[in-house]
Amino acid sequence: MTMSQGIPDSDRPPPVRAVFSALTWKEIAHLVSNMPVAIVGFVYTVVMVSVAGGLSVTAVGLPLLACGLYLSRQLGRLERARARVLLGVRVEEPSPIPGPKRAGGFFPWLWTSIKDPVGWRTVLYELVRLPWGVFTFTVVLTGLFVLWPVLPYVVRMLANADRAMVRGLLSPVDELERRIAELESDRGVVVDTAAADLRRIERDLHDGAQARLVALAMGLGLAKEKLLEDPEGAAAMVDEAHGEVKLALQELRDLARGIHPAVLTDRGLDAALSSVASRCVVPVKVAVDLPARPAEAIEGIAYFVVSELLQNVSKHAEARGASVEVWRAGARLLIRVSDDGRGGASAAGGSGLAGLAERLGAVDGVLVVVSPEGEGTVVTAELPWRDRAGAGVGRG
Fold first, then answer.
1. Sign of CA pseudo-dihedral 215, 218, 223, 229
2. Domain chopping of the chain, boundaries
């Protein structure tokens, strides 16, 4: 590929030819179809803006406008496809608007949808297309009978104007702003997740170790009162309290392991995941192939991803065996957990896998679930690789 004046050759308009090539006929088809397509888009846009604007003082006006802008996005998608097929213009699709759950609720989603720059640029595109569509339709049809010798030049000029219009109004030029909005939404997910984890820890402490320690204190108090009157009974109560202490300590250790296991801090993912695998109800093979330990945060997320996935295997898979693989591929940390169970797992909304996918998405990660019925489940997770503070840390 060569460059001319800073524009890649692949993006430059094709040269004009005085013959009716296949590309010229495609351009003619695009220019002739401009008018009927523009009429549909113009009518929809005017009706949508008018109705939503008129109802904006009511409770349904703004949601209606948000839905209208979403449908405008779909019109833009169709126009990009038409330009791709007939004009050879390849414009990237803009990022989708996060749904209400990921946006942090209905009203944040509503506000994001109403100020969507992609939707509003599509509205502008549809409004200017009607006069332009009528003009190109008239010129090309007239040229087929009157301007035949010079029609390829006229068609190319009009098609190049169409190409510029598609690139200018339908390309995702606001991807940086969209990415910033997504990161703000992901930050909300992280905050909600942290709050939920704190509530879980508080509940586990209240219902587990705290309740056991309260019972232990009461038992020791009763044993103290009986110490002189009934030494044997007091000894039995102290022995029972000793058992309660052991259980409370085990619960506290389990809770600490759930927050951040010491083996992960001390020995890395290989040892920590082997420890998790040993607690699974089915045999699990663990293979960790990392050139170094990733950043503490990424390492912790990887640990909890595998922990949750192996819990799913224990509870739901009905498997005979499972495997865990962890490796680095470029700037990504990849995790694959597979089992030979009954399959049918889904990351649809409301499932545990959906929550896991949300957590990964908040740190620019990805979760892919392949789980045909009766053929087992393969879950692949990707995380961004970040080097641990202080390069040169050995293998985990």
1. negative
2. 3-173, 186-259, 262-384
